[in-house]
Amino acid sequence: MRTLPRRSEFGLALAGALVGIAAGLCVSVMTLIARTMHKLVFQLEPGVRLSGTIVKDKTLMLAAPIVGGALLGLLLFALARWRKRPLVDPIEANALHGGRLSLTDSIIVAVQNLVSNGFGASVGLEAGYTQVASGLASKFGSKLKLRRSDMRILVGCGAAGAIAAAFNAPLTGAFYAFELIIGAYTIVSLTPVVVSALVANLIARFLSASDAGIDVGSVGSIVPADYVPALMLGAVCGGMGILLMQGVALVEETARRSAIPGYLRPIIGGTIVGLLAMISPQVLSGGHGALHLNLETDVPFFALLSLLVLKAAASAISIGSGFRGGLFFASLLMGALIGKLFSFVAPYLGHASLEPTSYAVVGMSSLAVAVIGGPLTMTFLALEITGDFPMTALVLASVITSSFIVRTLFGYSFATWRFHLRGETIRSAHDVGWIRNLTVDKLMRADVRTAAADMPVAAFRNAFPIGSTQRVVLTEPNGKYAGIVLVPAVHGNLVENEEATVPVRDLAEQRNDVLLPTMNARQAVALFDQCESEALAVVSDLISQKVIGLLTESHTLRRYSEELDRNRREVSGEL
Q1: CB 125 within 8 A of CB 30
Q2: Do the bridges between strand 471-475 and strand 450-452 make them parallel or antiparallel, or are there none, so unpaired?
Q3: DSSP of 388-402, one letter per residue?
């Protein structure tokens, strides 16, 4: 079983199919649990969505998010005491850890997501879907002992299956994996990812045939003049996406700077969300019901605007206060609201041929690409929910505009922006972890030649004749690093009275420039360039500075180039 996926593409495709089955089951089970929680907590009628109905008991709308916040706070308190390491999501796992993802952590995230969504917090389940499906894929890949590149593909298969099953959209799921989880499209990854998406979608539709994703109905005809308002709407959605992401970051930063403990913040956030829900229950949960309600009916301008503001505030407060979830479906809902709002303004701009539903589809794709990223992902989502190719081309123009605006003015998607706030430098799931694993302690020579820094030059020449070695590291009597000397330079340097008075430390170079074993190859190369040195000593730490090795610039560049070429060949499918 381990040999098959390591030696053939068929084996990897088969592993992708098994991951797709698991993803479809996970999505179906999590959806059933969440909808059951909605029904029990909010006393809903069978078959209705939480955000698309009117909850008769206003007390429930206020109390449910508070109770959910309290339960989540208890879970956060327990995690803070017994599991202190941060939870890694699929994007970070593929970017930094070669697809290694803890299944236990993934289940914890899924439970947090279910508690948040089930009690009405304004977050979707897509984060939980992709987390647990990718966690299962990573666990399966670990059992198969897959290579790093294959492990990353299998994690992408898990995410692809989860999104495909959630939206009844296999192409959307596949390109979600390519653009957001794997970070690149290759012919090698195509088959397993698409197979996983198709299988997961079939499993989910078999288990819950009535839950068929998003239905927008007819979008009307498209003419060339419609591209002008679509481009304008894309630019508007790009700006709104930036504001939304900064709003979430502002809430998180405000909560972090406050004296409120982390486990109490969800209770406060739940209280605010409950108060907003008393104004409009459409802000609750992910927003499936609210999306269909606003797409299928004619809603006044100010009602749409009010709901947009309330939903944006509820989503930012939910995530910023500690509720677990994502902005995927919330961005679709808010984008649809922006699109319908734009349909009221379009006639005054000289463009009135598009239907309000068409503007809604363009808006939901454009805002989603601004927040989530993945222009082709959102374009294929529009194709799969409308089945209209002219509409898809219109959406493509809009999402490219929105993506360009965000990349130019902001530079991050929602996930990578949160990494940036944490101090990480990654901007996508493209594999950069290999360079962090290529550390100085793996590159250095440990059999370094050393000498006492106070040794006379003559004694040094006797101990290290020309040809014995090229460099010698000098140390103080306490073992601390004192510099590097070149043996040919010592033999070629004529010093008067050298036998009696001159210590070899006077000829030392790079006395203050050292490498640490935890530095990666890129940092080492930068330090070589800064010091203008061909070799540097490696010390244990900056305090004791015990010499543990020596590293040359030529060896570092050669190993870096080899790993870079190997990574390129893996991405292109040559390996």
Answers
A1: yes
A2: parallel
A3: -HHHHHHHHHHHHHH
Instruction: Please choose, from the candidates 50, 459, 24, the residue with its C-alpha nearest in 3D space to the C-alpha of residue 201.
Output: 24
Within its chain, how far is the Cα of 178 from the centroid?
A: 13
Three-state DSSP class for 474? strand
- Listed as ranges, residues in the chain with pLDDT below 70 are 209-213, 217, 351-352, 419-435, 493-501, 568, 570-575
Element (H, E) at 469: none
- 498 SS3 class: coil
Q: Are 139 and 104 in contact (CB under 8 A)?
A: no
What is the signed CA dihedral for 568, 573, 574, 575, rounded to 10 degrees? 90
Exposed/middle/buried for 39, CB within 10 Å: 0-12, 13-18, 19+? middle
Q: Give the separation between CA 295 and CA 357, rounded to whole angstroms.
A: 6
pLDDT at residue 497, as a whole number: 45
Q: Which token pair is 441?
A: 């302690």
Specify the DSSP element, H or E, that contains 309: helix 301-320
Cβ atoms 181, 145 nearer than 8 A: no
Region of residue 297 (phi > 0: left; psi between -120 and 50: alpha; otherwise: beta): beta
**Is the four-CA dihedral 135, 32, 79, 264 of positive or negative sign?**
positive
Hey, CA dihedral for 525, 526, 532, 537, is it positive or negative? negative
Residue 266 has a pLDDT of 93
Backbone angles phi, psi at 544, to 5 degrees: -80, -30
Angle at which helices 103-118 and 126-144 cross, to 10°: 170
The Cα 108–Cα 373 span in angstroms is: 25
CA–centroid distance for 449 within its chain: 45
CA distances 505 to 8, 204, 451, Å, are 59, 72, 10
Phi then psi dihedrals of residue 482, to 5 deg: -125, -5
**In this structure, are residues 519 and 472 in contact, taking their beta carbons and an 8 Å threshold?**
no
Q: What pLDDT digit, counting tens, does each position of 296-307 carry?
A: 888 899 999 999
Ramachandran category for residue 499: left, alpha or beta (phi over 0 → left; psi -120 to 50 → alpha): alpha
CA 228 to chain centre: 33
β-pair partners for 547:
539
Q: What is the pLDDT of residue 499?
A: 52
343 residue type, one letter? S
- H or E stretch including 513? none
Whether the Cβ atoms of residue 62 and residue 130 lie closer than 8 Å to each other? no
For the record, the structure tokens of 140 come out as 């399966």
Tokens at 394, concatenated: 């219109």
Q: Which residues contact 308 (CB under 8 A, 6 or more apart)?
A: 334, 337, 338, 341
**Confidence (pLDDT) at 495:** 55
d(CA 178, CA 383): 17
Q: Which of 405, 394, 335, 407 is nearest to 367 (CA)?
A: 335
Torsion over CA of 45, 51, 56 and 61, rounded to 10 degrees? 120
Instruction: Estimate to the nearest angstrom the gap between the alpha carbon of 516 and the chain centroid.
Output: 29
Which of 246, 214, 334, 210 is closest to 282 using CA atoms?
Answer: 334
In the three-class reduction of DSSP (H, G, I as helix; E, B as strand; rest coil), residue 70 is classed as helix
